[in-house]
Amino acid sequence: MTLCECGCGQPAPISPYTNKRLGYIKGKPRRFVKNHFARSGAAHRGHRRSARRIKPDARCSCGCGRSLPEAAQPRYSRSKDGRVFLHGHNMNGRVGPLHGQWKGGRLVSYGYIKVRMPDHPSAPRDGYVFEHRLVMENMLDRHLESHEQVHHKNGRKDDNRPENLELWQRSQPPGIRAREAPHCPTCSCST
Question: Residue 150 burial (CB < 10 Å; 0-12/13-18/19+)?
Fold first, then answer.
């Protein structure tokens, strides 16, 4: 009886077929119990992979200072020169303007222009805010509220000139301007 080579002590199964690529010979015991080859770091073809373990006190090489998890192998990556990074940290500091695909912090989404402003109060998780809302906020010298909507007079979503924008109230029926809105939604007076 042959035991699994990973060191678990379980008996290795007898191969029912021959597979030269995997090193199986029909009627002979296999080297490992199913899925145990990964425990020892050995590969299918019979040679050992170099076990490149990280140190218990290892830190991410990007400079963030976070420690690397010992057990979670897919949570970190290793560069060609041997440095170890947390998943997604191997950018070599190339974020924002330093990144090769940086487009100036502006992008077009459904015809509207968005500007990267991660510190803006109404910025979503990606940090991009609609430019027409920023232009209106600069015109009013305040942040827009959630029920306020900016309308493009000429219908072009990418024309964000101040003279082309007007403020609408979304809480009112569609198509009402802020200056024409009644002072309360339930009121029918003319003041």
Answer: buried
Does residue 181 register a pLDDT over 70? Answer: no
b/e sequence 100-133, b meaning 16+ C-beta within 10 Å: eeeeeeeeeeeebbbbbeeebeeeeeeebbbbbb
Type of residue at 33? V
Tokens at 89, concatenated: 């940290």
Give me 130's structure tokens. Answer: 């609609």
Give per-residue pLDDT as tens, 28-68: 888 888 777 655 444 444 444 444 566 667 777 777 777 77
How does residue 188 score in pLDDT terms, banded at 50, 70 and 90? low
CA distances from 139 to 21, 94, 113, 148, 158 (A): 71, 35, 18, 14, 18
Position 46 scores a pLDDT of 45
